[in-house]
Amino acid sequence: MDHLKPSSANSCPLTPLTFLQRAAIVYGECPSIVYNHTTYTWSQTYTRCLRLASAVVSLGIQTGAVVSVVAPNIPAMYELQFAVPMAGCVLNNINTRLDARTISAILRHSESRAVFFDSHLRSLVLESISLLPPHVPPPMLILISDDDDDDTPATIHGVHYTYEGMVQKGNPDFQWVPPENEWDPMTLNYTSGTTSSPKGVVHSHRSLFIITFDSLVNWSVPKQPVYLWTLPMFHSNGWSYTWGMAAVGGTNVCLRKLDAGVVYAAINNHKVTHMCGAPVILTMLANYPGAKPLKNPVQFLTGGAPPPAAVVLRTESLGFVVSHGYGLTEVAGVVVSCAWKRKWNAFPAAERARLKALQGVRTLGLTAADVVDPKTGESVKRDGLTMGEIVLRGGCLMLGYLKNPEATAKCMKNGWLHTGDVGVMHSDGYIEIKDRSKDIIISGGENVSSVEVESVLYSNPAVNEAAVVARPDDYWGETPCAFLSLKEGVSPKPMEYEVIEFCRARLPHYMVPKTVVFMAELPKTATGKVQKFALRDIATKMGSLATASRM
């Protein structure tokens, strides 16, 4: 069979950009984007992306250069997920809740050549540009206006172009730039900011093609769903559902701001079928005072942290069908999920909710997932008890970290991507995610999973949000410290000792929080992840706790 070899006919580069081209043909007259009073069809979206891509090329930006976007979930943000790479550039979505100094550092590190930014964020972006060192050439600035009457560049200092101006001047017959090689970089996303040193994750056209297909199959997304954007598109390109919605001809319902009342109204008005978000979104929807049972079921894919079973139970009682997915920026989407077994349908509701919150098996597009001993690299026992590091292998993995070969080598070694997440492997081959390695609390030599403690805290009817971190302890080394926000209108408010007693009745004593701190709201990233490093700082500054006499 020596004559059977790859050819230009069967080895053309894979890229998710082709999904939009096909959507314009198959779903041309169907709605692609809905936002306030604006609706576009897939034919219009394809044309607008071609125009915008041609305009980016006309700016003299070279193939492979980085182009950044700072915007919420508005139509322009969705279009840019296609238009920037269609111009041959690398798309860099930036978290809108970062401070100007961090954004400036990202622009410098990525050597961004242009920044598309939302008009509501102009002061943030302009400040970040002003912080660039004198020797660093500033990127071109393109304003995205949210008004019908687009601002002109002359009205805003430093702005070179407007978004709609570029679209109107662009060529609708532009021949978009396909990758020469499917391994060419397509996106650059910086890690979410739950640590103090975010890294630039580079993904290829190939990895994003694979993860997009995989995400659709894994979630059983049908043709022409109605997808509500409650997950920020800047978070791993919306877990790749930006390109996925084009593949299935879905309707993208965009929301500028996230508010429970607005979300419920959008679900009812647009007959939403699918949405994604961090567990904090589930909590927001579950605890909304005006929540009523949905008229039709809505598929909700959550990830970022294991959702508390109590929250899953509450949201499913409202009509949401919750699925739990595990992934990280380095894999661009969900790669471990709770593949539901038919026999589980006979379990009590509380048990079904627990399984959805904690269990997971690799998706079809991932080659392998395992839990290994971080010291030996050997697989841990399949007993559901022995903890180890979750490792992944497959075609959706990143190329590496931009300009950081040391971090890349540390993360990708021995044929695996080492996630830094802690889990156990059950006898049936399902992984249960326990914690981030840095979030495991070691108290008196015992490993305490903050996720398990948080799950119990969420079952308290007064608790709205919960996060558990380590506090220094003179006797035990570390003890669990719980940070809580309470549901609106709770009266009387629980005392610290009441929360501790609540946990003591449901947890081994060594896992019970020794300190409880009440806050109006827990600090979070824009993707809904609790910033545990900030809470650890607070717990550390509280000083050591001498608890031996109380144990």
TrEMBL record:
The family assignment reads: Belongs to the ATP-dependent AMP-binding enzyme family.
Q: Which PANTHER family does the entry link to?
A: ACYL-ACTIVATING ENZYME, ACYL-ACTIVATING ENZYME 6-RELATED
Species assigned in the record: Handroanthus impetiginosus
Instruction: Give a GO molecular function annotation for the protein.
Output: (E)-caffeate-CoA ligase activity
The record places domain AMP-dependent synthetase/ligase at 21-402
Keyword Ligase present in the record's keywords: the answer is yes
The keyword Ion transport is assigned to this record? no
Matching entries from PROSITE patterns are given as:
AMP_BINDING
Its GO biological process terms? Answer: phenylpropanoid metabolic process
Keywords attached to this Swiss-Prot or TrEMBL record, sorted alphabetically, are: Ligase, Phenylpropanoid metabolism
Task: List residues of the AMP-binding enzyme C-terminal domain.
Answer: 452-529
Q: Which Pfam family, just one, is annotated for this protein?
A: AMP-binding_C
Question: Any idea what this protein is called?
Answer: Acyl-CoA synthetase
The metabolic or biological pathway listed in the UniProt record of this protein is: Phytoalexin biosynthesis; 3,4',5-trihydroxystilbene biosynthesis; 3,4',5-trihydroxystilbene from trans-4-coumarate: step 1/2
Q: Which InterPro entries match?
A: AMP-bd_C, AMP-bd_C_sf, AMP-binding_CS, AMP-dep_synth/lig_dom, ANL_N_sf
